[in-house]
């Protein structure tokens, strides 16, 4: 059964002792596609120049890029080593360890809030809504709140692609598909996998009802992984174009590896 204990120690341990988040977006075709499309969506949805609060920003993969583009960025991450790496490696305005559910920021103190990680690891709906509500609280009226989620379909698609589904692993994979809650025994940490309509529901519950959900990678990301496609290849460019074309199609977005939900504070 998935864990019922508080997830924070497991998440800190995983990202401190087990997994190197700093290189994730460089290691695989899917990671490079995720980075290209997330940057594209951020450039489109963030006001220029914006003071950005990057919640769950890890070691600064997007914070550094945004700071280089002229956005003052304040990064908060649950893992102290991530915040330290962001301070060391990127020109961020600040980087600190903290919890997206409890922010030491005044109301309406930033122009935009990003949650490109917290919703991955909060298995309780109430905690996810609290994190979104906190992001909305600290964002000025008219500013965007953008939150990423791992698609409910991703584990099964990716593990089948890797040849890792068998009689031993199938029960845990099917349980995660049914409930959204990952069992850390699968090798990943405490995690939650979303359906697109759940993001809409959670944004609405947090006071952000006018929400749009985008598919980040689109339907071709497993093909890129299987081919080992390089970023400069034709197939990679076409995968980006395909993701862009289908990004808001409700029949397609759920097969993206990641989803991005966007809403404007005060828009009703």
- In round numbers, the mean pLDDT is 94
Q: Estimate what percentage of residues fall within beta strands.
A: 15-25%
Figure out the total of helices. Answer: 12
Strand-and-helix sequence, N→C?
HHHEHEHEEHHEHHEEHEHHE
Distance between the termini: 40 Å
Relative helix content: 40-55%
Structural class given helices, strands, pairing? alpha/beta
- Number of β-strand runs: 9
* Overall 3D form: globular
Which stretches are poorly predicted, pLDDT < 50 over at least 5 residues?
Answer: none
Largest sheet: 9 strands, mixed
Give the radius of gyration: 17 Å
Walkthrough of the structure:
This protein has helices at 8-18, 24-27, 29-45, 61-68, 80-89, 118-121, 125-138, 154-161, 170-179, 196-205, 221-227, 234-245; strands at residues 52-55, 73-77, 94-97, 112-115, 144-151, 181-182, 191-194, 211-215, 258-264. Strands 1, 2, 3, 4, 5, 6, 7, 8 and 9 form a nine-stranded mixed β-sheet that branches. The protein is of the alpha/beta class. It is built from twelve helices and nine strands. Helix 4 (61-68) links the parallel strand 1 (52-55) and strand 2 (73-77). The mean pLDDT is 94.
């Amino acid at each position: 059964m998935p864990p019922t204990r508080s997830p924070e120690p497991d998440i800190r341990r995983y990202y401190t002792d087990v997994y190197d988040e700093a290189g994730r977006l460089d290691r695989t075709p899917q990671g490079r596609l995720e980075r290209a499309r997330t940057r594209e969506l951020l450039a489109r949805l963030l006001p220029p120049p914006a003071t950005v609060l990057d919640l769950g920003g890890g070691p600064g993969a997007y914070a550094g890029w945004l700071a280089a583009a002229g956005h003052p960025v304040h990064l908060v991450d649950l893992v102290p080593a991530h915040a330290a790496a962001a301070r060391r490696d990127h020109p961020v305005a600040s980087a600190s360890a903290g919890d997206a559910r409890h922010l030491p920021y005044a109301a309406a103190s930033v122009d935009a809030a990003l949650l490109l990680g917290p919703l991955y690891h909060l298995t309780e709906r109430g905690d996810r809504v609290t994190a979104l509500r906190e992001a909305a609280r600290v964002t000025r009226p008219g500013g965007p709140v953008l939150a990423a989620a791992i698609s409910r379909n991703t584990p099964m698609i990716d593990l089948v692609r890797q040849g890792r589904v068998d009689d031993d692993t199938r029960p845990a994979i099917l349980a995660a598909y049914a409930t959204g809650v990952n069992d850390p025994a699968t090798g990943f940490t405490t995690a939650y996998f979303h359906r697109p309509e759940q993001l809409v529901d959670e944004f609405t519950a947090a006071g952000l009802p006018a929400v749009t959900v985008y598919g980040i990678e689109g339907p071709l990301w497993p093909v890129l992984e299987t081919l080992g496609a390089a970023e400069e290849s034709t197939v990679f460019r076409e995968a980006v174009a395909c993701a862009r074309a289908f990004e808001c199609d409700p029949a397609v977005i759920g097969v993206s590896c990641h989803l991005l939900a966007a809403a404007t504070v005060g828009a009703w």
